[in-house]
């Protein structure tokens, strides 16, 4: 009795500390989402395409150059009495990484501009190099606070930093500034954030700034994750670079809008995967690993009831969604967008979390490696012969190949000596069937609505609220139809939500 009470108290304390950070991330996700939506309305297509190209370069370097060193703070700081060496050497490493990124941008942006057939890109050499250097240098800011248990401070930093970043990216163009002016403002913001990183991260820590032995341990721990990111990020972005090198900036802007994804998948997938990892660990410790397959099917089934309708709605209501969010000039992006929603469907099975929980991380690395090998020829052939659709199609095929490799490993990870599982044993067929039936019926209703209301929206007044009206009507029809069909199949949607909340609380 006392043990369960202690556990509950501990869990409540943990959730209480994590709450502000979760809320901050949700709020900042909304801020980040608003940036491309606003810029789509104030920039012309050429500048909007250039904007995406600039940040494609910066974000690629942002995820590759840290080499997992920043993320290693989550492991070392909670276990270290002297935290200052880990913080200091991480800050120095990231400052050096930022310098490497800045030099690469400044030296190579002219060549990249030629590859992208966008000579104007080279004009942004200075602000992009400065932004990249300071962005990488300030990477440890929130992580250093969270890994020390200072979650309220980390939440506050998330809120302030992302709010200011959104403002400096949106306000200058709204006031008539050029894209170059916006990039200078963003670089200045990143510089201030870099200074704040040094002031805030080291506050209250003790010990030397650098310890050679500890740094070697930190690099050894970070290397596998860093190597995986060096494969994963270029592979994920390969189609973006290939398309940017094959089309004009205005057409690239359409492609990036077609690749736009709402952060809903990560908000649901990540906590579900983490809870599943904890559950599999508990079952293994208690000698009940044979129940792991039921836990996997339950988690996947719940995700299916949310992700399948979400993907089906975005597919069926793609014209209304693109028109409302970005404007009618981006409607040619609808075919690309419909292919990109496949990523939502592929997130139903929480396979990577299952493999990590069972210590089979090599399978995850192998999937990254195969995806990278498959992506290069697919992207080259796809973009060369089929243009934009070839780019997004090559991405989709590579994602399917990677997920198939992970799925092939899941049955062995969940098997026991007494029970050998196959692929068909781990898939929640009943949940997938019911969710698919309901989602397809609701999608058909949206297509019928569009056919019946053809031209009815043409005379609507201008303004975002009026542009969003077709999307709102389609959304109401879809989700009403989805819930009604689910009800007739015996599924109670409110019980699904309650079950998901209970799982997260557990």
From TrEMBL:
<feature type="transmembrane region" description="Helical">
    <location>
        <begin position="124"/>
        <end position="141"/>
    </location>
</feature>
<dbReference type="GO" id="GO:0005886">
    <property type="term" value="C:plasma membrane"/>
</dbReference>
<feature type="transmembrane region" description="Helical">
    <location>
        <begin position="51"/>
        <end position="77"/>
    </location>
</feature>
<keyword id="KW-1003">Cell membrane</keyword>
<keyword id="KW-0472">Membrane</keyword>
<keyword id="KW-0812">Transmembrane</keyword>
<dbReference type="InterPro" id="IPR050833">
    <property type="entry name" value="Poly_Biosynth_Transport"/>
</dbReference>
<feature type="transmembrane region" description="Helical">
    <location>
        <begin position="89"/>
        <end position="112"/>
    </location>
</feature>
<feature type="transmembrane region" description="Helical">
    <location>
        <begin position="177"/>
        <end position="196"/>
    </location>
</feature>
<keyword id="KW-1133">Transmembrane helix</keyword>
<feature type="transmembrane region" description="Helical">
    <location>
        <begin position="21"/>
        <end position="39"/>
    </location>
</feature>
<feature type="transmembrane region" description="Helical">
    <location>
        <begin position="464"/>
        <end position="485"/>
    </location>
</feature>
<dbReference type="Pfam" id="PF13440">
    <property type="entry name" value="Polysacc_synt_3"/>
</dbReference>
<feature type="transmembrane region" description="Helical">
    <location>
        <begin position="303"/>
        <end position="324"/>
    </location>
</feature>
<feature type="transmembrane region" description="Helical">
    <location>
        <begin position="330"/>
        <end position="351"/>
    </location>
</feature>
<protein>
    <submittedName>
        <fullName>Lipopolysaccharide biosynthesis protein WzxC</fullName>
    </submittedName>
</protein>
């Amino acid at each position: 009795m006392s043990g369960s009470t202690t556990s509950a108290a501990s869990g409540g304390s943990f959730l209480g500390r994590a709450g502000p950070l979760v809320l901050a991330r949700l709020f900042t996700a909304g801020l980040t989402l608003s940036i491309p939506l606003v810029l789509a309305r104030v920039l012309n297509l050429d500048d909007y395409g250039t904007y995406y190209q600039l940040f494609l370069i910066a974000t690629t370097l942002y995820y590759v150059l840290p080499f997992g060193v920043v993320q290693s703070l989550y492991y070392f700081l909670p276990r270290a009495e002297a935290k200052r060496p880990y913080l200091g050497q991480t800050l120095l490493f990231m400052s050096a990484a930022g310098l490497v990124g800045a030099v690469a941008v400044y030296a190579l942006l002219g060549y990249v501009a030629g590859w992208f057939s966008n000579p104007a890109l080279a004009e942004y050499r200075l602000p992009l190099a400065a932004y990249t250097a300071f962005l990488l240098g300030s990477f440890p800011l929130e992580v250093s606070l969270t890994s020390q248990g200072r979650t309220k401070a980390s939440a506050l930093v998330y809120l302030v930093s992302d709010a200011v970043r959104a403002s400096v990216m949106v306000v200058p163009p709204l006031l008539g500034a050029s894209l170059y002016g916006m990039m200078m403002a963003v670089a200045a913001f990143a510089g201030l954030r870099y200074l704040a990183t040094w002031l805030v991260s080291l506050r209250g820590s003790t010990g030397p700034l650098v310890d050679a032995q500890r740094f070697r341990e930190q690099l050894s721990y970070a290397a596998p994750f860093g190597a995986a990111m060096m494969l994963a990020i270029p592979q994920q972005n390969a189609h973006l670079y290939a398309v940017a090198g094959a089309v004009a900036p205005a057409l690239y802007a359409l492609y990036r809008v077609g690749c736009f994804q709402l952060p809903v998948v990560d908000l649901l997938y990540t906590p579900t995967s983490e809870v599943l990892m904890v559950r599999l660990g508990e079952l293994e410790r208690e000698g009940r690993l044979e129940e792991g397959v039921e836990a996997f099917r339950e988690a996947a089934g719940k995700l299916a009831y949310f992700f399948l309708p979400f993907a089906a709605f975005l597919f069926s209501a793609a014209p209304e969604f693109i028109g409302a969010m970005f404007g009618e000039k981006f409607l040619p992006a609808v075919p690309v967008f419909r292919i990109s929603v496949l990523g939502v469907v592929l997130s139903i099975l929480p396979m990577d979390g299952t493999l990590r929980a069972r210590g089979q991380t090599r399978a995850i690395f192998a999937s990254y490696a195969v995806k990278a090998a498959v992506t290069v020829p697919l992207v080259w052939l796809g973009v060369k012969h089929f243009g934009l659709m070839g780019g997004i199609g090559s991405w989709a095929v590579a994602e399917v190949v990677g997920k198939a490799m992970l799925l092939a490993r899941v049955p062995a990870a969940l098997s026991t000596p007494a029970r050998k599982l196959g692929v068909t044993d781990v898939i929640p067929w009943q949940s997938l069937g019911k969710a698919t039936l309901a989602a397809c019926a609701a999608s058909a209703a949206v297509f019928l609505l569009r056919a019946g209301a053809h031209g009815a929206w043409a005379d609507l007044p201008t303004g975002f609220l009026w542009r969003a009206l077709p999307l709102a009507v389609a959304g109401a029809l879809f989700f009403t139809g989805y819930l009604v069909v689910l009800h007739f199949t015996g599924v109670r949607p409110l019980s699904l939500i309650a079950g998901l909340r209970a799982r997260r609380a557990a």
